[in-house]
Amino acid sequence: MKHTAVRSYRAVRWLTTRLESGLAEIRRRPDGGDISITTVIIWVAAVTGALVIAGTIAAVIAKYNGSLSGI
Prior knowledge:
This protein is mainly α.
């Protein structure tokens, strides 16, 4: 039980130190985590394109399912 308490204390201390250093970095550079609107537009376009391609493939497979069964 003694070792578990020591390990727990070390883990909590490490997490606290890590959180404090992260908060200090945020205070030092408040704009560090901002994401540009261009990046959002590119990601939305990429995901939409992938969904359109997957939908097209699913529609073609559904349409020709009977003739593709021999492949």
